């Protein structure tokens, strides 16, 4: 990732900016440790410190009042324990690299996000996910973590340990994750196809039929067509190509999630079988944008109320004034299903969810002015925001959405007693 300024942004901080260019890090110092020992010494000696991965988060979550430590230069290692069906990977590695290594050795992950360029530790810290009724978030594949805490100690926490469920989706607030152990399975092939024009009426009447029609399903809509979902992307394990869903038609040529976007940046959509890591993400690993021209928001609603929640967003998007503004700011929305997990700060904690996602034009003041109305429409469903994306819920609203909020506060106070990993973004959310 380059630190060049995106168009229209200048940066004076040595720590540069996030991928979207809407956040300029204010930290006066950035370090690129090359060993875990060096990292631990940097962390121990800093009054304020935060880790940064590939910078794809849309807020100042990785910023620090003193020091940012990048995981880019730490050694990249992948080892597989075939008996345990786990892989130990360096936290700063990107999923694209991890996936290639695993596949070469005959192994695979269950889930990937739309973009394979994000780091493993950065992705699990915010509860990043892909899609699939039987598929949990990327964090739900974690079986153990090595973390450098603010006293410089390196601790391992494993599934089954009392602190584990609080330590995986942890927003970088507990320490710097240096190694992640992930559940793996034998490598597999997949197909991907795209269908267009699924009637909203049938989709909302039976969401289970849509999300259950492939191993990983994404519905894309701009909410502009009142009758039909624009695209349904379906990824299926094996060589099988599912029939188009009733009322939709198979796309004649490859497309992009954004209407009119460059299809060559996207993974194969022809139904040709290929390895899992070249079908699960929407975007190809070889396509590496140095910065973005967009913002994103996403809200997780309970699966059993998802049709109602989607209907509420459709109604908002169709309403005069706020609906016009929503559609003006929106590039595209994506709907995905995520299986429940037990990770305290996960959007899918304790319940199967559907993620209602929005890719916005990069006009942050206008997006932030709109979000309270969107959040009010989704509030009746107990919608939890994605930690890596833009939202405006207040601290007390957030606390009410997470049953283990108080337990996480206790864990954070214990693991980071001197508050080195606190920053303004976390404080604004009540951490
Ligand atoms: C184009 C694009 C597509 C996206 N697609 C998806 C998607 O399909 N699904 C989805 O759920 N999200 C998606 N996201 C959001 C993205 O996955 C999250 O923001 C993710 O956290 C980014 O990971 P990163 O490596 O860039 O982390 P960063 O943005 O660098 O950091 C994120 C957080 O992790 C912490 N962190 C980073 N490294 C470490 C470490 N080693 N130890 C401890 N804490 C650490 C940081 O302090 C910060 O709090 C997308 C974002 C973009 C820009």
Strand tally, please?
A: 19
- Overall residue-averaged pLDDT value: 95
Beta-strand level of the residues, as a percent range?
Answer: 15-25%
What is the count of helical runs? 12
- Give a short account of the largest sheet: 9 strands, antiparallel
| Total individual domains | 2
Give the % helix.
10-25%
Under the CATH scheme, which architecture of the largest domain would be assigned? 2-Layer Sandwich
Shape: globular
CATH topology (fold) name of the largest domain = Alpha-Beta Plaits
Provide the low-confidence segments as ranges: 1-11
Radius of gyration using CA atoms only: 21 Å
Distance between the terminal alpha carbons, to the nearest Å? 29 Å
CATH classification class of the largest domain: Alpha Beta
State the secondary-structure class. alpha+beta
Bound molecules: flavin-adenine dinucleotide
Give a topology summary:
Layout: E1 29-31, H1 36-45, E2 49-52, E3 67-70, E4 78-81, E5 86-90, H2 95-104, E6 107-108, H3 120-125, E7 142-148, E8 154-158, H4 164-167, E9 176-183, E10 185-186, E11 189-199, H5 200-205, H6 207-211, E12 216-221, E13 228-237, E14 249-250, E15 274-275, E16 294-302, H7 306-318, H8 322-329, E17 330-338, E18 353-361, H9 364-378, E19 384-385, H10 395-401, H11 405-415, H12 424-428
Parallel strand pairs: 1-3, 2-3
Antiparallel strand pairs: 4-5, 5-9, 6-10, 7-8, 7-9, 11-13, 11-14, 11-15, 12-13, 12-17, 16-18, 16-19, 17-18
Bound molecules: flavin-adenine dinucleotide (FAD).
Flavin-adenine dinucleotide binds at residues 19, 50-57, 61-62, 71, 91-92, 113-115, 118-119, 121-123, 125-126, 128-129, 171-172, 176-177, 292, 296, 386, 388.
């Amino acid at each position: 990732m380059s630190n060049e300024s995106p168009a229209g942004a200048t940066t004076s901080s040595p720590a540069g900016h996030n991928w979207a260019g809407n956040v300029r890090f204010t930290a006066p110092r950035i370090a690129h440790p090359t060993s875990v020992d060096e990292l631990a010494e940097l962390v121990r000696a800093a009054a304020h410190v935060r880790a940064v991965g590939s910078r794809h988060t849309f807020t100042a979550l990785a910023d620090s009042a003193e020091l940012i430590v990048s995981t880019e230069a730490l050694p990249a290692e992948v080892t597989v324990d075939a008996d345990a069906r786990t892989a130990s990977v360096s936290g700063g590695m990107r999923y694209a690299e991890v996936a290639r290594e695993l596949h070469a050795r005959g192994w695979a992950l269950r889930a990937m996000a739309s973009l394979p360029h994000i780091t493993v530790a950065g992705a699990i810290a915010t509860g990043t996910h892909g899609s699939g009724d039987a598929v949990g978030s990327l964090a739900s594949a974690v079986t153990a973590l090595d973390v450098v805490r603010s006293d410089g100690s390196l601790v391992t926490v494993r599934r089954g340990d009392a602190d584990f469920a609080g330590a995986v989706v942890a927003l970088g607030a507990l320490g710097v994750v240096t190694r992640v152990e992930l559940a793996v399975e034998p490598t597999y092939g997949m197909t991907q196809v795209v269908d267009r024009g699924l009637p909203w009426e049938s989709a909302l009447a039976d969401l289970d039929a849509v999300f259950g029609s492939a191993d990983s399903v994404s519905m894309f809509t701009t909410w502009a067509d009142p009758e039909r979902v624009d695209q349904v992307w379906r990824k299926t394990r094996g060589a099988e190509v599912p029939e188009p869903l009733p009322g939709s038609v198979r796309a004649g040529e490859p497309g992009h999630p954004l209407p009119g976007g460059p299809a060559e940046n996207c993974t194969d959509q022809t139904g040709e079988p290929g390895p899992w890591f070249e079908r699960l993400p929407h975007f190809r690993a070889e396509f590496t944008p140095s910065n973005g021209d967009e913002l994103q928001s996403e809200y997780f609603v309970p699966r059993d109320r998802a049709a109602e929640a989607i209907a509420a967003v459709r109604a908002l998007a169709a309403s005069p004034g706020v609906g016009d503004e929503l559609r003006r700011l929106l590039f595209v929305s994506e709907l995905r299903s995520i299986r429940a997990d037990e990770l305290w700060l996960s959007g899918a904690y304790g319940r199967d969810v559907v993620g209602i996602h929005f890719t916005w034009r990069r006009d942050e003041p206008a997006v932030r002015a709109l979000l309270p109305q969107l959040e009010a429409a989704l509030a009746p469903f107990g919608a939890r925001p994605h930690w890596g994306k833009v939202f405006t819920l207040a601290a007390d609203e957030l606390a009410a959405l997470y049953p283990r909020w108080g337990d996480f506060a206790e864990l954070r106070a214990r693991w980071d007693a001197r508050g080195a990993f606190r920053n303004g973004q976390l404080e604004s959310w009540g951490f």
